[in-house]
Design goal:
3-stranded antiparallel β-sheet, 4 helices
Length: 126
C-alpha cells in the first residue's frame, strides 16, 4: 500500500461506512423503525457520499473537492441528530437515534480525517 495514499483509503472507508449505514435504522419511535434508506435525508447523504467516493477514486481530481461532499454528509447527519433530539424535548415524544444515523455521522468524520490526513501528508512531502 502506498503511504501517500493512506488518507485517501481512510476517506474511502468512511464514505463507504455512510452507505453501510443505510441498512440500519435512522430513528425509532414507539415501536416504529425508520430505515436509513427510507429517510429522504439519508438519500441526500448517500448521494453526496457516492460522489465523494467517485472523486476519491479518480486521482486526477483534487482530493479537497471530496471534502465538500463529505461536509454535506456530516451536515445532514448532525442536522437530523439535533432534529430528533429536539423532538424529544419539545413534544414529549420519545424518538431515539438509530444506528444508521450514527454510522452516517461517523463515516463522515472518518472520511474528513482521511482527506485532511492525505492533504497534510502530501503537503509535507513536497
Amino acid at each position: 500500500m502506498n503511504q501517500k495514499e493512506t488518507g485517501r483509503y481512510i476517506a474511502l472507508a468512511g464514505a463507504a461506512l455512510v452507505l453501510i449505514g443505510g441498512a440500519f435504522d435512522w430513528d425509532h419511535a414507539a415501536g416504529f423503525h425508520l430505515k436509513a434508506y427510507e429517510a429522504p435525508d439519508w438519500m441526500i447523504a448517500a448521494g453526496a457520499a457516492v460522489i465523494a467516493i467517485l472523486f476519491l477514486l479518480i486521482k486526477k481530481i483534487p482530493i479537497w473537492i471530496s471534502l465538500f461532499f463529505i461536509a454535506i454528509v456530516i451536515a445532514v447527519g448532525v442536522f437530523d441528530f439535533y432534529a430528533i433530539m429536539s423532538t424529544n424535548s419539545d413534544e414529549g415524544i420519545r424518538i431515539s437515534v438509530g444506528q444508521g444515523l450514527y454510522l452516517t455521522i461517523a463515516g463522515g468524520i472518518l472520511a474528513t480525517i482521511g482527506i485532511i490526513s492525505h492533504i497534510v501528508k502530501n503537503k509535507s512531502a513536497e
